[in-house]
Structures are given as structure tokens and as C-alpha cells.
Design brief:
This protein is of the alpha+beta class. The protein has six domains: 71 residues; 129 residues, Nucleic acid-binding proteins (OB fold (Dihydrolipoamide Acetyltransferase, E2P)); 206 residues, no CATH class; 54 residues, no CATH class; 77 residues; 255 residues, Ribonuclease Z/Hydroxyacylglutathione hydrolase-like (Metallo-beta-lactamase, Chain A, 4-Layer Sandwich), CATH 3.60.15.10. It contains 26 helices and 25 strands. The protein has an eight-stranded mixed β-sheet, covered by helices on one side. Strands 17-18-19-20-21-22-23 form a seven-stranded mixed β-sheet. A five-stranded mixed barrel has the order 1-3-5-7-6. The longest helix has 35 residues.
């Protein structure tokens, strides 16, 4: 209960936000006063019996609120207070507080002409800006990314960095990850990009202290474990062992993370109770079973092994929780105390949240504690229910042969593994859906298949680590570990290819997830009370005393109504939760009330998503020059806007910054139609757009030319450009498809990258009455570029209500031109500053433009 009260205090503080440093001191005083009062009342034995316990809970509530308020407060010289709206070139000194991890080149945009640079990432505790004289003191953590294969620095070293200091960004598009909040939950409020390793200068190495101890221990363990791979290009197995055995979670990389995610076994990469359990189980088997040591000596040696393991792994919430519970288990064995998993779990939560209250809102903390709570409370009951069988005289039959013994042991192990995997998968499902919006339907079965290989890899990894200095034995374990690692990677790769291995869904609301777990807790408490009172014919004197003596048979007559009442309450609670989930599943996602166009923020590129209240969607271009998959961005945005299907994908022209995300969209969303201009196929050749190759694979490609028209529900799309028959002197940009979207009597003009010739010809046709360029909203041609004479004439012909530019750079010339042509009558929006721009086509009012993702800092 104190842990629950601490959680409630942290949650209340998060809801209220930072309210001032004075509140921190007041709530601390109130917490201390409540504790003192509880101690006094307990010693004097005065007041109601439950008052001291209530005061302890109140103290935990106040303390949780105060601790979170203190964590929210940033000092005046904090590095976040020096941040500007734009990345700032500066030189900064600080100490490396997280192990630098190298990441290989990761090309997420397949159309980039060059390979991205490898990177080294770490966390720096800033101490001062050295660009001023004298240096300006500062403090705070920042995440650093260096474009290099390696750097000459390690954890604990003091370094000087020269690079661009920036503010971590929040979501820029619908359905996008809030990286600013993700960093804040780790006390990181700034980031820095360093272009080369030469801009990382080490002042001096780590001195005596925790950094040198941790750094030396981790470096030694990594060197011993990965020694067999030093002469081979085995990057993937190295990363797997680094993450799986040594707990260097950040070393896994995107490819391994994706493979384990699709195979439903991503939790194995996060070192937690499973890894600690395997380690301690192997130690217990070695010391107690094989070494024949006593319980206390074995527990003491297990404690030493656990301490050494904690020394070399990354310290996150799951590993700290598992280490705390493992330590308490060893101490209980040493002093002969009973197993008390719930109290140990609560104590570990108290310790972690006291050190870092932000952990409460991180997915790793929540999943770790929910799953362990379920394994402690639910798994034993389910296991007994599954393995129960009627026996004679209440004694189970013994194994008469070795074969029967192994079969019975294997049955118990496999059944226990299956129960744990199913219970853990089911209990984690609401949180997984809420945090990640995706789930692995085969997760429980896949975890059961992967688990033995992971266990064997971990055990062999530990033995390889310990025996590496012994030539023959170390080589034997090294070869065995190499083979098992290869098998594990093969199994994971195979499982990740299962049909529907990973399904994307919309995230359920937080209240539904909280209500679900609350119902489970209430039901568990009700069942526990029923079990405590016992069956009707087994009423104890204690139950009679608590229920009262009713009738000649004591409490018997009251027990049946009690069972019926509690069972009815539990059934009603679960029925309400099942009904709420059913409504959420069958109810359509939140859709726009009117047809809406969303110009996504994709940097130097273009992606426009058009969604209707009926759940239809259309994409006009989906590309970028940057190294990320804009197709994934567009799909997440469409799902966030309630789109069920993609009716059309329109690719304006053959520049990859307008179609780099098309392969992902074609493979994952299968649009009904893919529209291109008449010159597209000749320009791109055999670009891999779909599962069968070629730009039209999937659902029949169509060519759009001037004069064509198609519909998306109530939205009409008219093609104004290009015509057929343009010769080779016309540039690809000037062949861009120009669409006029009409919805509820409002118009939007989508222009691609049209330049000199196309702008001039469109204006001529407009003035001749052949086409009508007028529109309420104009997508600025060629990302807001200004061509003297041509651009001004085109803008005057369109006469828009607002203009939207999709770019990552400032367009000062466009801003000046808009002011010259229209003054303050026309608004200019840029995805660079505003993030995604939403345009609502309302029948009753003028076009409404929203910028929900504009920078708020």
C-alpha cells in the first residue's frame, strides 16, 4: 500500500505539472510530519487502530508528490535554458555518463544516393560552455550523436564537444512518437550532433569513482565475452550477445530490435527478471545441486554473482527491479525468512521511484512490474489448475522408470513455460497496445519457442565469460556459444516471417487500460477474500468471528450469499471491461468531421494526406531527401486520422523526394490505385515500388494527364497538368501532376515541383479561360521556391486564402513575396516551423487551418 500511495502522489504531480519549488518543501514537511505522527501514535498506542497506517500512506502520497516536483524543477543554469529555436553551434564540456555505443550505417531511405554515416551515441552530463571567457557553468544531461565509427573516449571521461546543440523535438505529425517527452523521462532535455570524431576531445580519463569501476568492469566483460568474434565479421551476433548477456540494450540496433519485435520476443533483449532468474538459477544449480553447498553458502555466492552481474549491465528499471528482488531472495535464504514476492516487488518499486519518479511513466517500468505481478499472483494458480489431476489417496504417482521421470519433468517444464508465456502476454497486452499501437498475435507461442534458446545463450554466455582466460575450456564454451547464437538468430528470423507476425492497431485510451488492470486487481482481491473464508463446510473459528454467529451452524448460512454477492460483483466488473473493449474495437477511430488535408512534416520532401469522414484516404506524394521512411510516417498519420483504407496514391513526378516512401505504402497498405504522370515510367525504370517490383505492382497503375478527373468520396480531384506530348526539353519538375481538390465548395491546389515553364503555361491557360487556378489553399510549388516573375504571376492567378510550404529551410524570399502581393490578407504556413498543417474543408465557414504540432518551447 505505501508503494501504491507513492505512485498516486507521482501521478498527481504529473497531472498538475510543476507548481513551484515552495510546494516541494511544503509536501516534504507534511510527509515527515505524517511519519512522526504515525510513530508517536504507534508507540503510545492511542487513537483508532488504523490511523498510523493511514498516516503512513498519507506520508507516501506527499513524498511521491514532492519527489516528482523536485525532478521537474530545472536549475537556472540548466543546459535546456540555453537552447534556441534553431540548432546552435557551440562547444561544451562534460562527463560521459553512459557507455558510448557504436551504430553502423542504417539506410532507411532506399533512394538515398550515399550511405549514411555510422554513429556513436552516448549521454553527457554537461558542466560548462567553453565558447565564452570565462567558461559559462551549466548542468544537465544531453544525448550526443557523433558521426563516426568510434571515438577515443569512454564512460566517465571528461570531454569537450564541438557541435550543434538542439532541443529534442515533440511529435511533428499525427500518430508520431513524442521524442521530447521520451527524453525528458530520462532527464535528458537537450541533444547535440557532432559531425566527426575529431570534434570530441578528451580532457582526462575517468578518475576513481563509480564511472571508472563500472566502465572497467563492462569493458573487461565485453572483451572476454566477444573474444571469439574478434577475428570475424560477426556484427549481428556481437550485438545480440552485448544486449542479451551484458545488458547493453542500446547496442542491439534497429535491425535486431525489429526482428525480435516481429517474433514476439523483444522483451528478451531488455535485461530483466528473466535474465537475472536464469543467472541465479544456474548459480543455484552449480553451487547447491552440483557443488553440494548448504543453502546459506549457496545464497551468499548467488548474491556475489548477482552483484558482479549488476556491475556490468546497463541500469534500467527492469534490471534494478530484478536485482532488488534477487538480493532480497538471497537474504531471505540466508536468514531463513519465507518467500514474500509481493512485498519484494513493492519495495523495489519504492526504491526505483524514489530515485527516479519519471520511471513510472515509461513503458519498460510498467510492463516489467505488471508482468512480474501477474507471474507471482496468477501463474501459480493457473499452473495448478492446468496440471491438476485426480490421484488415489491424495498422493501423485511416482515415476517408475527413467523414461517416465524425464517425460514427467519435461511435461512440468513445458507446461510451466507455456503458462508463464501466456499469462505474461495477456497481462502485458493492454499496455503494449497503449504504448506501441501494435502487438504480436503469436507472441505467447513465439516466446515459448525462443525462450529455451535464449536461456541456453545466456547460460553459455556466462560460462564463456568466466572461462575465457582458460584456453581449452574457454574455446569450448566460445564455440558452443557461437553455434547457439547462430541458431537463436535463425529461429528469430524465421518467426519474424510468420504471417501477421506484427499487427498495427490504434492505441487504446489510458483510462481503458487503467480500468482493465483495476478490474483485475479488484477481482483478485475478491477471490482472495472468498478463498480466505473457505468452503461452506470448512468455516474456521476466525471466519465465524468475522462474519458473526448466525443460526445454529455459525456463519454457514451467511457464506453462500457472500459467495453469490462477490461473484456477481466480479462478473459485473469484468463484464463492464469486456464491453468497453468491445466498443473500442468495433467503434471506428476518431475521424475528421469534415474532409481534411494534412501536409505532413517530412523535411525536404512532400507528403499530403487527404482523409474523409467516411474513412477513405488519398496520398499526394510520399517522399523525402532525409534518411527516414516517410511511408511509415504517412501510414501512422492516416491511422491517427481514422483512415481505414487508401483509395489512391498520386506520385506527382519522378524525383525520389516525392516517392521514396512509396514502396512501404504499396507493401503495407495496398492502395486501390497508383496514379503517375505519362512520363514517370520512362524516368524511373524498374524502381522497386511494390511486392512484385515495378511502379504499378499491387493494384493497377493509371496515368493522369490534364483534363482527367477522379473522386474520393465527396472530394473531387481535377488534373490541371501535365498534358501529353511534352518533349524531352521539359524538366521532370515541370511535368509534375497539378491537382485541384474540391470539397464542400472549397479548393486546394497541389502543385508538386512545377517551375519556370509549367508555371508560365498554367498562367497562360488560366488567363485564356482554359483552366481555373483559383483556390482557397495553395501548396507552394517546389517547396516554396521563388522564381522571379513566374512565381508572382502564378500566386496572383491562384489568389489563395493561405499558402503551405513543405520544406526544412527558411523561405525568406517567399515570405517577402507574400507580403508584397497580399500583405496580411494571406497566411503563410511552413512545415518547418509548424509541423504538420491541417486544412479542414468546412461547408459552413471558410477553410480552417490548424497547426496542432507547432513548437511550443
Amino acid at each position: 500500500m505505501p508503494a501504491a500511495a507513492l505512485v498516486a502522489g507521482i501521478w498527481l504531480s504529473d497531472c498538475s505539472g510543476f507548481v513551484g519549488s515552495g510546494v516541494y518543501y511544503v509536501t516534504n514537511v507534511m510527509s515527515a510530519a505524517a511519519i512522526i505522527a504515525a510513530v508517536i501514535l504507534t508507540l503510545r498506542r492511542k487513537g483508532p487502530p488504523g490511523l498510523p497506517a493511514a498516516l503512513v500512506l498519507l506520508a507516501a502520497l506527499f513524498f511521491g508528490y514532492a519527489r516528482h516536483q523536485h525532478a521537474l524543477h530545472l536549475p537556472e543554469r540548466h543546459v535546456s535554458r540555453f537552447l534556441a529555436d534553431e540548432p546552435m553551434l557551440t562547444r561544451l564540456a562534460g562527463r560521459i555518463v553512459a557507455q558510448p555505443t557504436a551504430f553502423p550505417s542504417d539506410k532507411r531511405n532506399p533512394f538515398l544516393p550515399n550511405e549514411p554515416s555510422p554513429r556513436v551515441r552516448f549521454v553527457l552530463d554537461a558542466t560548462e560552455f567553453v565558447t565564452t571567457e570565462p567558461p559559462t557553468p551549466t548542468c544537465g544531461l544531453l544525448r550526443v550523436s557523433v558521426e563516426a565509427e568510434s571515438i577515443d573516449a569512454d564512460m566517465g571521461d571528461v570531454v569537450v564537444l564541438t557541435g550543434k546543440l538542439y532541443r529534442p523535438r515533440g511529435p511533428r505529425n499525427p500518430g508520431e512518437m513524442d521524442w521530447a517527452r521520451w527524453n525528458r523521462l530520462q532527464h535528458v532535455h537537450a541533444g547535440m550532433k557532432v559531425e566527426d570524431a575529431v570534434h570530441v576531445r578528451r580532457l582526462h580519463e575517468a578518475g576513481a569513482g563509480r564511472f571508472s569501476v563500472f566502465g572497467a568492469a563492462r569493458a573487461f566483460a565485453r572483451r572476454m565475452l566477444l573474444e571469439p568474434y574478434s577475428q570475424a565479421e560477426m556484427d549481428r551476433p556481437q550485438r545480440l550477445l552485448d544486449a542479451l548477456v551484458l545488458g547493453q540494450r542500446s547496442a542491439a540496433g534497429r535491425e535486431l530490435n525489429e526482428a525480435f519485435l516481429r517474433s514476439g520476443s523483444l522483451h528478451f533483449l531488455a535485461v530483466s527478471g528473466y535474465h537475472v532468474g536464469v543467472l541465479m538459477g544456474a548459480a543455484w544449480l552449480l553451487f547447491h545441486r552440483l557443488g553440494r553447498l548448504g543453502t546459506r553458502k549457496s545464497a551468499l555466492l548467488m548474491l556475489v554473482v548477482l552483484g558482479a552481474y549488476v556491475l556490468v549491465v546497463e541500469h534500467n528499471a527492469p534490471i534494478l527491479r530484478a536485482a532488488t528482488m534477487g538480493t532480497l531472495l538471497c537474504l531471505a535464504l540466508i536468514i531463513r525468512r519465507p518467500f514474500c514476492g509481493l512485498n519484494w516487488l513493492s519495495l523495489s518499486a519504492l526504491c526505483i521511484l524514489t530515485c527516479n519518479p519519471f520511471e513510472l511513466f515509461r513503458a519498460g517500468f510498467q510492463l516489467s512490474f505488471v508482468q512480474v505481478l501477474a507471474i507471482i499472483t496468477i501463474t501459480p494458480r493457473v499452473y495448478r489448475l492446468v496440471t491438476w489431476r485426480r490421484v488415489e489417496n491424495g498422493v501423485p504417482a511416482d515415476a517408475d522408470t527413467w523414461r517416465m521421470f524425464f517425460l514427467m519433468t519435461a511435461y512440468r517444464w513445458l507446461t510451466g513455460l507455456l503458462v508463464i508465456c501466456v499469462v505474461a502476454w495477456i497481462t502485458a497486452l493492454p499496455l503494449v497496445l497503449h504504448h506501441f499501437g501494435r502487438f504480436a498475435p503469436w507472441g505467447a507461442l513465439q516466446s515459448m519457442i525462443v525462450s529455451p534458446f535464449v536461456m541456453l545463450t545466456i547460460v553459455l554466455g556466462f560460462f564463456a565469460l568466466l572461462t575465457q582466460p582458460v584456453p581449452l575450456l574457454g574455446a569450448l564454451f566460445g564455440v558452443s556459444l557461437h553455434g547457439v547464437t547462430s541458431i537463436l538468430l535463425g529461429v528469430v528470423d524465421h518467426l519474424s516471417q510468420w504471417p501477421n507476425a506484427l499487427i498495427d492497431v490504434r492505441s487504446p485510451p489510458a483510462w481503458l487500460v487503467i480500468a482493465t488492470y483495476g478490474a483485475v486487481v479488484l477481482a483478485a482481491m475478491g477471490i482472495r477474500r472468498l478463498n480466505k473464508y473457505g468452503a461452506q463446510d470448512e468455516i474456521t473459528s476466525e471466519s465465524q468471528r468475522r462474519l458473526g454467529d448466525y443460526g445454529p451452524n455459525g456463519g454457514g448460512p451467511l457464506l453462500l450469499p457472500l459467495y453469490v454477492k462477490r461473484f456477481a460483483i466480479i462478473t459485473a466488473v469484468f463484464g463492464a471491461i469486456v464491453f468497453a473493449w468491445t466498443v473500442w474495437l468495433v467503434r471506428p477511430a476518431s475521424r475528421p468531421a469534415t474532409p481534411t488535408a494534412c501536409v505532413l512534416s517530412v523535411g525536404d520532401g512532400l507528403a499530403v494526406l487527404i482523409a474523409t469522414p467516411a474513412g477513405d484516404a488519398m496520398l499526394y506524394d510520399v517522399g523525402t531527401l532525409h534518411n527516414f521512411d516517410v511511408g511509415e510516417t504517412a501510414i501512422r498519420a492516416a491511422r491517427a486520422m481514422g483512415a481505414d483504407k487508401l483509395d489512391a496514391l498520386v506520385i506527382s513526378h519522378a524525383n525520389f523526394d516525392h516517392f521514396s516512401g512509396a514502396p512501404t505504402v504499396m507493401n503495407k497498405w495496398s492502395p486501390r490505385h497508383c496514379f503517375v504522370n505519362p512520363y514517370f515510367q520512362a524516368a524511373v525504370g524498374d524502381a522497386p515500388f511494390g511486392p512484385r517490383g515495378g511502379p504499378y505492382s499491387g493494384s493497377g497503375g493509371l496515368t493522369l494527364r490534364a483534363g482527367d478527373r477522379f473522386r474520393l468520396g465527396d472530394i473531387a480531384a481535377d488534373v490541371l497538368w501535365p498534358p501529353e506530348g511534352l518533349d524531352d526539353t521539359w524538366e521532370a519538375n515541370d511535368r509534375s501532376i497539378v491537382l485541384r481538390i474540391t470539397a464542400n465548395g472549397r479548393r486546394m491546389l497541389l502543385t508538386g515541383d512545377i517551375e519556370h515553364a509549367a508555371l508560365r503555361e498554367l498562367v497562360r491557360r488560366h488567363e485564356a479561360g482554359e483552366i481555373d487556378l483559383r483556390a482557397d489553399v495553395l501548396l507552394a510549388p517546389h517547396h516554396g521556391a521563388v522564381i522571379p516573375g513566374e512565381t508572382a504571376a502564378f500566386y496572383r492567378a491562384v489568389s489563395p486564402y493561405c499558402v503551405v510550404s513543405s520544406a526544412s529551410r527558411k523561405r525568406d524570399k517567399l515570405t517577402a513575396l507574400m507580403a508584397e502581393l497580399f500583405g496580411d490578407d494571406v497566411r503563410l504556413f511552413s512545415t518547418r516551423d509548424a509541423g504538420a498543417v491541417m486544412i479542414n474543408f468546412d461547408r459552413e465557414t471558410a477553410v480552417a487551418v490548424e497547426t496542432p504540432f507547432i513548437r511550443s518551447d
